[in-house]
Amino acid sequence: MAKRLTCDVVVVGAGMVGAACALYAARAGLDVRVVDRGPVAGGTTGAGEGNLLVSDKEPGPELELALLSARLWARLGDELGPQAEYEPKGGLVVASAPETLTALQAFADAQRTAGVAADPVTADRLRELEPHLATGMAGGVHYPQDAQVMPALAAAHLLRASGARLLTGWTVTGILRTAAGGVAGVRTDRGDVHAPAVVNAAGTWGGGIAALAGVRLPVLPRRGFVLVTEPLPRMIRHKVYAADYVADVASDSASLRTSPVVEGTAAGPVLIGASRERVGFDRSLSLPAVRALAAGAIGLFPFLERVRALRTYAGFRPYLPDHLPAIGPDPRVPGLFHACGHEGAGIGLATGTGQLIARVLAGRTPELDLTPFRPERFEQADTDGGDT
Description:
The chain has helices at residues 16-27, 61-80, 98-113, 126-129, 151-162, 206-212, 245-250, 287-300, 346-361, 377-383, and strands at 5-6, 9-12, 32-36, 51-52, 91-95, 119-122, 139-143, 147-148, 165-168, 172-177, 183-188, 191-194, 197-200, 220-229, 239-242, 257-264, 270-276, 309-319, 326-329, 336-340. By secondary structure, the chain is an alpha/beta fold. The strands form four sheets. An eight-stranded mixed sheet has the order 6-7-5-15-16-17-14-18. Strands 9-3-2-13-20-19 form a six-stranded mixed sheet, sandwiched between helices. Strand 11 and strand 12 (191-194) form a beta hairpin. The longest helix is centred in the first third of the chain and has 20 residues, at 61-80.
């Protein structure tokens, strides 16, 4: 007879958020299993740029989570060393026109009141920070708290540091329940894993895991492309993006939206984003999206016109209608926890999310108020006719 698999917590999803949940839960003294139908970082994490950002978030719950996560990432960066390619290189947001700069400066003023370091940069100083930046920009804001990791490496190292048992290639097909209706573990195509707590960290597929437990979590896929150039000397020092990127992140539009986001990597290639569109799980190449990314990047850094793009890849950001992730216990199913719906910010927000989940699992008070992230809030909106 096969040995019965039991533990304290099953984390569904071996991406960055799942890895962080496993790490902090294990450090809270819990026995953790991580289950994923694919490999480590095989979903959204592996298709990301590795951004750890505070610069693109307005004051509110998500920014508070980003600031907590940034502090935790800095500690993990010291702990992991160069293994995860953690780079606290800072971000530079640039405005091409005076009116855009005025809006950017007002945005930065509000962020500073919430604890963000946001330093104004005049037009004549932009090229001190980025010597190859296009001329004629109106100015910008420097965000020293922004950082970057290599996401697949970082997720793998967080999982290794957690000591959690990793069950890759195991597809979750059901949520086991007790007679009283609480969680008793997960059913998979390779056997059951028993635990009194299950963490849904399945990213874009988090809605499907929630449905297995009989609850609604309206996670939608939002496709994005990234262009990858040939390896270059370090010619771009920061994460550099246009001020209209923030509006694109907050947009509810299903149609294609692009705004230039450009950054170098420790390995040499330059990563170019960002596009957003809701097309379901269609992975087919969109030439309009890729052309718009290339044109936007060249507009920021003209030298890129002479650089070869080696490949492009697509990923699906786990999008929730109010642009906030679902984090915390689900009162509809005792023992079910959610840690998904971070859209394009999951890499950066993973550490804070993992710590918050671990504290609740261990019966401790979380560092942030989880009310804005409550997973059942969409059910309330349906009942109230859309008002929360």
